[in-house]
Design a protein that fits this description.
Helices cover about 50% and strands about 20% of the residues. Strand 1 and strand 2 form a beta hairpin. It folds into four domains: about 70 residues, no CATH class; about 110 residues, PAS domain (Beta-Lactamase); about 80 residues; about 150 residues, 2-Layer Sandwich (Heat Shock Protein 90), CATH 3.30.565. Helix 1 packs antiparallel against helix 2, helix 6 runs antiparallel to helix 7 and helix 7 crosses helix 11. Bound molecules: adenosine-5'-diphosphate. Adenosine-5'-diphosphate binds next to helix 9 and helix 11.
Length: about 425
Amino acid sequence: MNAPRLPWCKGGKTLAIALVFLALVVLNIIFAPLGLAIFDAILLLGTGALVIGTENKAEKEVFKNKAKGSELRSLIENTKDGVVMYDTNFTILDVNQSAEKMFNVSREEVLGKQMQPEMVRSPRLRIMVQTIFPSLAVSMNTISDAGWPKVVDLVFDDPRLEVRTILNQITNEKGEVVGFIKIISNNTRENTILQSKSEFLTVSAHQLRTPLTAINWTFESLRSSLGDDFAKKRNEISNLVNEGWELAKRSLKIIDDLLNASKIEEGKFGFDFGKINLVDLMKSLQSAASVVAKEYGITLNLSSASPDYEVKADAEKLGMAVTNILDNAVKYNSKNGTVSIAIEPSEGNTVTVSISDTGIGIPKENLGKIFQKFYRSENAQATEPNGSGLGMYITKNIIEAHGGSVFVESIIGRGTTFWFTLPLETPSS
Ligand code: ADP
């Protein structure tokens, strides 16, 4: 983004030049011999007209610039975001109405005042000083990367304010930095709403989880107490119980996905890292997934280039990430399909785990959305109506928290491959 420039207004010196030319014409006419005087007059009048013409053009330009300047000024003045401009010595050049309201100061009071960090002690200027010197705010979170503009989230207390500030440089014609412009959006209300939305989600998901766990458990024990013989005799009851159990299990998964996604967003999805053997973990996940895979008639196989790939991981969370991929590979597979897991070393002392299925595939145009929250492609919804669309979002977050990356590739109607990388603890041999 280009740094904004201060509007410049150049003075009209050309008017003075034109007057001098006119005076010369008059002097020539009075003092010079007649012929020469006429010749001189024509010449000088021509030059004068040229100068006046240039002057008119320049005036128009100045007028246009002034109009532009006033448009800009009224735009800044009426924007709902606060705007504050200051020079390189932190002397306030301008504030708009919204900034006056936000900082609870008047324009007259701060214009031309040089802001200094110590002024934070002044109750009147505290918020304004904290905005200009963000490290003085109660909390500061830098959003942008290095360079300009700088985007920072700030929290102030008493009164509580949550703002996002965007700071950019103001340069002159030569490109030298002559000041700064800071745009301040007040996000207090939006953040409060978001916070209560996420609290509502967490509380309701927790409330729903308890009865659902009980329903799940009831169906599970009913299912095992019916036994095979009973199932044969009372096929219908058995089917209903199985269906009830499946549904309760899926609903629980959705609730857990919701809870995990909101924990990720709140930064409360803690990890407990330790050294683990990735191949052993993958084998145990394969065996857990094979129960459901059997029901779907899907074959699962695993191959590893080495039996030892040591990674630093939270086994439970990494297990959750892989299970999400494996479950999808099973449920979005075709009849009697296969799921192949391969573990291989990869560049930069990493290990790559790929999970390929022979299923419905993902439309090419939807591949970019797979890791977004709540995204479910149409063909997946038709195959499996239940789903949260959160599994891949959670998976991506978990893999990235382990220092890895996750990718997807797919051919519609042919199958999908998800693969992820993880840094190795010890160099692969
Ligand atoms: P859910 O499975 O609950 O819909 P996920 O977040 O696990 O949500 O997956 C998001 C979407 O990605 C799925 O709805 C589906 O459209 C697509 N998807 C993920 N894995 C596969 C796969 N192996 N085959 C086809 N589509 C997949």
